[in-house]
What does this fold into?
Amino acid sequence: MNILLLGSGGREHALAWKISQSSHCARLFIAPGNAGTSACGENVPIAVNDIPAIGEFCLRESIAMVVVGPEEPLVLGIQDYFAADERLARIRLIGPSAEGAKLEGSKDYAKSFMMRHRIPTAAYQSFTTKTLAEGIDFLDTLRPPYVLKADGLAAGKGVVILEDLAAAKEELSSMLVQRKFGAASSRVVIEEFLSGIELSVFVLTDGKDYKILPEAKDYKRIGDGDKGPNTGGMGAVSPVPFADADFMKKVEEQIVRPTVNGLRSDCIVYHGWIFIGLMNVDGEPKVIEYNVRMGDPETEVVIPRITSDLVSLLQATADGTLAQAPLTVDPRSAVTVMLVSGGYPDAYEKGKSILGLDASTDSLLFHAGTARAADHSVISAGGRVLAVTSYGTTIAEARNKSYASISHICYDKMNFRKDIGLDLMKD
Ligand code: AMP
Ligand code: GLY
It folds into this structure.
């Protein structure tokens, strides 16, 4: 079948790499893709949020499956758009309806979903401009640190954690009254601070059954030792040693199963990925957030560990036959290290020539922010530039391979964390 993948990051290169290996894939198109995805299929210059143009392309190229990488088209209702058009409705679209995408698009919606289905999460209340005074009173009842979240999508920046009560009250007013995050902060969720270790859990669901994919740990801060500002993610490791069988059994029973059953009982159309960001609080899993897509850079370690055919799994996800679909996983560890532009996550320069891309055969190189210059050479085109993934029988072996491969790659002002996986190494 012909497949269209939407997106342009490291996540999409990893998905394109895996999809293109499937015997079920005839032609793969990536919209808009990057310099790396063009080695797995054909890049097409369509923006991920141009839903009518995506629909027309699907008809023109006889697309049988659309795999949605980022959340934006889902929040905009791409699934509903395809379902409402009889020519497009036969196409398998991997991703939830707009209603399902609210699990990521609105923190307040996600919180009430969790409450309704008794899924463990931090205690919370939400406030609007009208209830600012109640919000300030609520902060008085809490102990620090204070966690304030813009309700809507705020490009990953909408969560503010503060130690000081006065600063928290000021932040609440700045979010609600001054609309610090625009319309996204017209509602603010204030929640209990959860202390523990974070884990990213990935699920595929067809709306009634589910498969739990390999879990991963993400490294969000720019600097070694988790210092400095938050980024999109500087590296990832899978599997995660603390996510042992006992812990994952709790995750499945207390979180994954009630989530999928909740989607069904709420009549939410959902054939796609669920990314559960959770905290291990003294051995008990609690949900921090839902995303309706795969994580980035987690995908760059999760997808390489899946040994079964991804297109078959996605087909079963769309068709409602996931219970019968085989999922097999490589027992080895995978470690990815993100190479970023100097200055990221603040201002950075693009257009730097990248050298050494072919020098290492020991790692998988997934392009994130890359493009081709007029002479076809690869140049940087974003904050996160390349994800370098390696396998190893231990985390130590996998991370050593990634760092050895990185030593062959260079571009002006290249930056990366040196400590990916170090905290997880007992082996
Ligand atoms: P989110 O955008 O919801 O993933 O939040 C961004 C980051 O803030 C998370 O990855 C956590 O590190 C942190 N965070 C969010 N909610 C909480 C919480 N209730 N307690 C502690 N940390 C949190
Ligand atoms: N790595 C976290 C995310 O994709 O949101």
Summary: The chain has three domains: 2-95, 125-191, 197-425. The mean pLDDT is 97.
